[in-house]
Amino acid sequence: MRQGKVEQYKDRAWLHRKYYVNKLSLEKVGELCGVSHNCIWEWLKKNGIERRSHSEHLKGKPAWNSDLTSNVDKRILAGNTHGMWGKIQPEKSRKIARMKAKIWYMKNPTFHKGKNNPFYGRKHSEESLQKNRKANSMENHYNWQGGLSFGSYGTEFNKGLKLFVRQRDDFICQLCGVMENGREHDCHHVDYNKKNNNEINLILLCKSCNSKANRDRERWEFLYQTLQEIRGTRSVDND
Asked: Which residues lie closer than 8 Å to 68 by C-beta, 6 or more apart?
């Protein structure tokens, strides 16, 4: 009997009923079978059962803190005894924390890619795509800069200056370390001001890394400014 109970999760119909019909979580299903939630997740994938969305998972459930009060919850009791109680973390500290998180994700690029992504194997409907395009176009986009990207570069931003920056940075992307290979890297403006063509404001990035800098501009500006300050500008002749 025990063996039969443990292996119930391998049966597609049983697993589908518990997960979708009874709305049990992976942890609850795992408890019924004496296995971990990761094991249940693996068998969902093996049986071709899509994982419920986060909103479906939370539907009908009370908020995590709905039944907590200052009398029963230590997190609330600890309030005014916490070292940061009543304080605001400096903007510089927040930027550093955000940048550390960003660097971690860059070092672990497969964390939520491929089969590790909860959306793996699924597609947006055309209606959803149209809705997203409309919600994120031009002025509606959170990163809209008033058409700043359409502005013109200064006259000094020419082939000679670009070649100088490429030679100074050894033809290597200063973020990911990839070297040019038949395709020139981009000269990125650290402060996003196309008129500021001072060599300290220019850094060499590959196409992929340069495209990333179009989002979270404050974070990237802080990172590249820090890199430039640390290394300084290097001369082409390595004087």
From this structure: 76
Which residues have CB under 8 Å from 50's CB, separation 6+? 44, 121, 122
Residue 162 has which token pair? 């670009």
Q: Are 194 and 154 in contact (CB under 8 A)?
A: yes
Q: Tell me, what amino acid is at 83?
A: G
Domain 151-231 has CATH 2.40.128: no
Q: How far is CA 62 from the centre of its chain?
A: 28
Among the listed residues 57, 58, 41, 56, the one whose alpha carbon sits nearest the alpha carbon of residue 115: 41
Structure tokens at 108: 């672990």
Q: How many residues would you count in the chain?
A: 239
List pLDDT tens digits, range 56-110.
777 767 766 666 665 556 655 556 666 677 778 888 888 888 888 888 888 887 7
Structure tokens at 227: 């890199």
Count Cβ neighbours within 10 Å for each residue of 9-18 and write b for 16 or more, e otherwise. beeeebbeeb
DSSP labels, 117-172: STTTT----HHHHHHHHHHTSGGGSTT--SSGGGSPPPTT-SHHHHHHHHHHTTTB
What does the CA dihedral 60, 66, 67, 69 come to, rounded to 10 degrees? 180
